[in-house]
């Protein structure tokens, strides 16, 4: 997978978030939630117009260029918010976290801001750079799609259901377009042609003749997927208040963060159970039986989703903004870290395997093209 050069123009313009946020933080009128929402919407609108005017050719070639440009700006803003909430910087986005979206001050909010300000930011620059040079960015787009969708779904649902439901301000409704963007962007990304592979018909046939026991890497991934599926189901039952002793011990001694009334961890575990659990079963099937050409794409989507989710979940479980009673106990920290790290690493290994050796997932070629030709004539 080729890594496209980053978009320098967008990188430079996105850094304007620093002086803009600093200036807005000192405007006294922004102490009212409605003015915060209106000013935020105005800035995003002006940014979209500016990027469209400065890069009309790129936007005409691919409208997602303007989306990535605006989102790169908001990623810098999110990184400022995270650094501010951890006391690394002061005087930038205090007005927004107080009057706009106070739930960004939670441990979960801080870590999704870190992820957006680093991983998503680099992905936006890479995808915009690919558009500038008329190159494909399908794999980057699929990873971003999964990551972005998981982040926004858990965050918005947790805001509505958790203890911050009474703190919803007008700025919350600015996130509505964030629900529509993944749908549109997903259709655009999936419609892009896949990168050409060097797999010949003989290579595909040879690879697909091998049983699972002849493919030790795939066997290890299938075992991982089965174990991850059980772990996903178990944690889903834990947040649903399963009365068994194992669930009781786990939620009090290993992951007490699942009891946090902010609701983000509970929503996250339910997302895992409803979406990741079926994927584990389907992926194990695709690694066992050849010709499942859908797996490489969806492995990237779920790698992005689980990577983002585990980063936020693990970080929030140990962050100082999480009340002490809900943080991971010191004596179980090692077990918690290893289990959750493996849970995040596995989908990335699966995606890497699918991209590097895709022959097993190709549609099998006709067994005897010459015989088929004679039969037709």
Can you describe what's shown?
The protein starts with 7 loop residues before the first helix and ends with a helix. It has 377 residues and is an all-alpha fold. It is 69% helix and 0% strand. The longest helix has 26 residues, at 107-132.
Task: Write a concise synopsis of the structure shown.
It is found in: Endomembrane system. The protein has 377 residues and is mainly α. The chain has helices at residues 8-14, 17-25, 33-54, 56-61, 64-85, 94-99, 107-132, 138-161, 176-190, 201-209, 216-239, 245-253, 264-288, 295-318, 333-356, 369-376.
What are the salient characteristics of this protein?
single chain; 377 residues; flat; 0% strand; 2 domains
Shape: flat
> Quick check: average pLDDT?
88
Q: Roughly what fraction of the amino acids lie in strands?
A: under 5%
Total separate domains: 2
Terminal CA distance reads: 42 Å
């Amino acid at each position: 997978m080729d890594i496209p050069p980053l978009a320098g123009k967008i990188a430079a313009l996105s850094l304007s978030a620093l002086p803009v946020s600093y200036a807005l933080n000192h405007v006294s009128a922004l102490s009212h939630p409605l003015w915060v929402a209106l000013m935020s919407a105005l800035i995003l609108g002006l940014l979209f117009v500016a990027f469209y005017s400065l890069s009309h050719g790129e936007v005409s070639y691919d409208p997602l260029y303007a989306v990535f440009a605006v989102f790169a700006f908001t990623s810098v803003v999110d990184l400022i918010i995270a650094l501010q909430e951890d006391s690394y910087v002061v005087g930038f986005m205090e007005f927004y976290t107080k009057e706009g979206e106070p739930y960004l001050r939670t441990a979960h909010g801080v870590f999704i801001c870190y992820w957006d300000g680093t991983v998503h930011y680099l992905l936006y620059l890479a995808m915009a750079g690919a558009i500038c040079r008329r190159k494909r960015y399908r794999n980057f787009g699929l990873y971003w799609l999964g990551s972005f969708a998981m982040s926004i779904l858990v965050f918005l649902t947790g805001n509505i259901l958790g203890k911050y439901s009474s703190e919803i301000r007008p700025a919350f409704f600015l996130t509505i377009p964030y629900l529509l963007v993944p749908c549109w962007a997903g259709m655009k990304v999936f419609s892009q042609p896949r990168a050409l592979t060097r797999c010949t018909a003989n290579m595909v046939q040879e690879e697909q003749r091998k049983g699972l026991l002849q493919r030790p890497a795939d066997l290890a991934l299938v075992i991982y997927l089965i174990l991850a599926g059980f772990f996903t189901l178990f944690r889903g039952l834990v947040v649903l208040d399963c009365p068994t002793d194992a669930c009781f011990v786990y939620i009090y001694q290993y992951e007490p963060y699942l009891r946090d009334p902010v609701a983000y961890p509970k929503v996250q575990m339910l997302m895992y159970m409803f979406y990741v659990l079926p994927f584990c079963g389907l992926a194990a099937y695709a690694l066992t039986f050849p010709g499942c050409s859908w797996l490489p794409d969806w492995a990237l989507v779920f790698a992005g989703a689980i990577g983002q989710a585990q980063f936020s979940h693990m970080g929030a479980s140990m962050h100082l903004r999480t009340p002490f009673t809900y943080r991971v106990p010191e004596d179980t920290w090692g077990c918690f870290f290893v289990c959750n790290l493996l849970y995040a690493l596995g989908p990335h290994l699966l995606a890497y395997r699918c991209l590097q050796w895709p022959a097993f997932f190709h549609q099998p070629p006709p067994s005897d093209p010459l015989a088929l030709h004679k039969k037709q004539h």
